[in-house]
Automatic annotation (TrEMBL):
Residues 278-484 form the MCM C-terminal AAA(+) ATPase domain. Its EC number is 3.6.4.12. This is DNA helicase. It comes from Archaeoglobus sulfaticallidus PM70-1. GO terms for molecular function: ATP binding; hydrolase activity; single-stranded DNA binding; single-stranded DNA helicase activity. The keyword Translocase does not apply. Pfam families: MCM (PF00493), MCM_lid (PF17855), MCM_OB (PF17207). One of its GO terms (cellular component) is MCM complex. GO terms for biological process: DNA replication initiation. Keywords: ATP-binding, DNA replication, DNA-binding, Helicase, Hydrolase, Nucleotide-binding. InterPro entries: AAA+_ATPase, MCM, MCM_4, MCM_dom, MCM_lid, MCM_OB, NA-bd_OB-fold, P-loop_NTPase. Belongs to the MCM family.
């Protein structure tokens, strides 16, 4: 015996949703569209009705209960006295316990109502789908209807009028259609631990749910888990694919922050912010296993914090995100650096220019192999929105990305206009790229632009470009070798300790310099907290210092091959803001400016040797 019934739902709607019933009836009267829905708040309303029994039944037997809800809508009273036919109850706000991670979806969830959270990776264009197909019998000319549910169009078995199993022709005009769209959602990048590949799931949407979301949106999909056998016809296998039949979508605020910072965390963050060695500690934590490169590590630390984005009175936006490019010989730890940043950044996406995935760096519109629909897929910079995109071998990127990257880096949007798809996606992220020189080794005496497969305009989008060369230098080489050997040694010992359970502290002490100074978990929280709450402003002195430096730089660059433009000025401001943010200060001081001038000089000096 179930508590749910069309009558119970009628009572529910009339008790809690009378206003919505009237509005819905009004809408149907004015624009006559058939597909309409009422949003039901699970926790707030359904859960207190009949002591939550119907809510529980919905989770267990969603097909039956949602059917009751639709019938209940039809029975419900409204002031316009309109029959609410073909209306749907869309359920939102499920309890946290019902939120299932994509990677945890199992056969036990099939046919159950769940909520799945993720970032939208792909959307197809919206196209009609036949739910009830009309056929004409060629023997007697009568019409036969067949309800459709699978991917293949189902033919009638026989004609009920003339009782023959003759031939039929499909009659699309008389068939009943709904709008349909397929999307793919993917786990949040920030919930993946180093190196894990994000998992995805397909979601099928119909009616008024279609055409509402874009790749890059963060959503909760509430719906029924379905399983379908793989293959078609005689090639069907017993293995099943699962997907979700969407009942409702909740688009999360872009500003929504996933990981929680407790009062206790804030105390630790405050304590750390007052550490006299703060800059060194954070810099050293960027990639402790990599020897040297202190300026680059400081630059990356500043990039993690970022400058303050601004909106001008005319509506144009200036990015706060800092873009950095590492160029250099093979084997100088560029890739390693990127992978490490991936581990400590609060939100980051790691990819290579060659692209292991089809979507590349920006976005791609392709025709789907299965159903021929145009599909828009988000690339790394869209998925990294509000975070950092780590792009190794960026010089190997696809031609489409080359042209789209200019807009993506500066305006932080990606416009797509292709076939049935017109969209503008957001890419508000910082970019840390690595590139190898075209001819294998970097030649310090030829210009940078000639040695790397990136256009000068694209290069000018980077706030900082560092050249990492591998020049033999006995003193440096010895220390580097010692550092790497130590890393390997401690790696081995940690492995051993797992078996022998020897106190780890002893070894930590011995190899302090390759242990991160700050616990990565705390560092991620520290960065997230700073980005969320600190928006530093330049002091008068800081401004004067920036102007002075900029004018001098312009002046001295007259004879050199490096062109200094207003872009460098903006870069300086962003870096100085990041420097203030790093110590949670609301004011950018002269010390901040001097600190970042040092970093800028380090990057310019290398390029100036061209
Ligand atoms: P790249 O991407 O620049 O070609 P990788 O990141 O793949 O180079 O590095 C090659 C190897 O050399 C890695 O195992 C890395 O740890 C090591 N290596 C190179 N330079 C350093 C360094 N400065 N400190 C520690 N390890 C280094
Ligand atoms: Mg590499």
């Amino acid at each position: 015996m179930m508590f749910s019934s069309p009558e119970a739902w009628r009572e529910f709607f009339e008790t809690y949703y009378q206003k919505e019933l009237n509005t819905l009836a009004d809408k149907i009267l004015t624009d006559g569209r058939k597909e309409k829905s009422i949003y039901v708040n699970f926790l707030k309303d359904l859960f207190i009705f009949y002591e939550g029994r119907i809510a529980e039944e919905l989770l267990e037997y969603p097909d039956t209960v949602l059917e009751h809800a639709s019938k209940g809508l039809e029975l419900s009273y409204n002031i316009h006295d309109v029959r609410l036919e073909n209306c749907k109850a869309r359920i939102v706000n499920l309890p946290q316990t019902r939120r299932i991670l994509i990677r945890d979806l199992r056969s036990e969830h099939v046919s159950k109502f769940v909520a799945v959270e993720g970032i939208v990776r792909k959307v197809t264009e919206v196209r009609p789908k036949i739910v009830k197909a009309s056929f004409i019998c060629l023997s007697c000319g009568n019409e036969v209807f067949v309800v459709q549910d699978d991917n293949q169009l189902k033919q009638p078995y026989e004609c009920k009028t003339c009782n023959t199993r003759g031939r039929f022709v499909f009659n699309p005009d008389n068939s009943i259609k709904v709008d349909s769209q397929r999307i793919k959602i993917q786990e949040y990048p920030e919930n993946l631990r180093g190196g894990e590949q994000p998992q995805t799931i397909d979601v099928f949407l119909e009616g008024d749910l279609t055409g509402k979301i874009n790749p890059g949106d963060r959503v909760v999909i509430n719906g029924i888990v379905r399983a379908r056998t793989r293959g078609y016809g005689s090639r069907k296998t017993p293995y099943m694919d699962i997907f979700i039949e969407g009942n409702s979508i909740e688009v999360l605020q872009q500003e929504y922050e996933e990981f929680e910072i407790t009062q206790e965390d804030i105390e630790k963050i405050m304590e750390l912010s007052e550490d006299p060695d703060l800059y060194k500690k954070i810099t050293d934590s960027v990639a402790p296993v990599i020897y040297g490169y202190d300026k680059i590590k400081l630059a990356i630390a500043l990039q993690l914090f970022g400058g303050v984005p601004k909106k001008l009175p005319d509506g144009t936006e200036i990015r706060g995100d800092i873009h950095i490019l590492l160029v250099g010989d093979p084997g100088v730890a560029k890739s390693q650096m990127l992978r490490y940043v991936h581990r400590i950044a609060p939100r980051s996406v790691y990819t290579t220019g060659k692209g292991t995935t089809s979507a590349g760096l920006t976005a791609t519109a392709t025709r789907d192999e299965v159903d021929g629909r145009w599909t828009l897929e988000a690339g790394a910079l869209v998925l990294a929105d509000k975070g950092i995109a780590l792009v190794d071998e960026i010089d190997k990127m696809r031609a489409e990305d080359r042209s789209a990257l200019h807009e993506a880096m500066e305006q932080q949007t990606i416009s797509v206009a292709k076939a049935g798809i017109n969209a503008m996606l957001r890419s508000r992220c910082a970019l840390l790229g690595a590139a190898n020189p075209k001819y294998g080794r970097f030649d310090l005496y030829s210009p940078l632009v000639e040695q790397i497969d990136l256009s000068p305009t694209l290069l000018s989008r980077f706030d900082l470009i560092f050249i990492m060369t591998d020049q033999p230098n006995p003193d440096h080489d010895r220390r580097l070798a010692e550092h790497i050997l130590k890393t390997h040694q401690i790696g081995e010992k940690l492995e051993m300790m797992k078996h022998l359970s020897i106190e780890a502290a002893e070894y930590r002490n011995e190899y302090k310099n390759i242990e991160p100074k700050i616990d990565p978990q705390l560092l991620r929280k520290y960065i997230a907290y700073a980005k969320r709450t600190v928006f530093p402003v330049l002091t008068k002195d800081a401004m004067d210092r920036i102007i002075e430096y900029y004018v001098n730089l312009r002046n001295s660059s007259k004879e050199s091959s490096v062109t200094i433009t207003a872009r460098q000025l903006e870069a300086l401001i962003r870096l100085a803001e990041a420097s203030a943010r790093l110590r949670l200060s609301d004011e950018v001081t002269v010390e901040d400016v001097n600190r970042v001038i040092d970093v800028v000089e380090a990057s310019l000096k290398q390029i100036a040797t061209n």
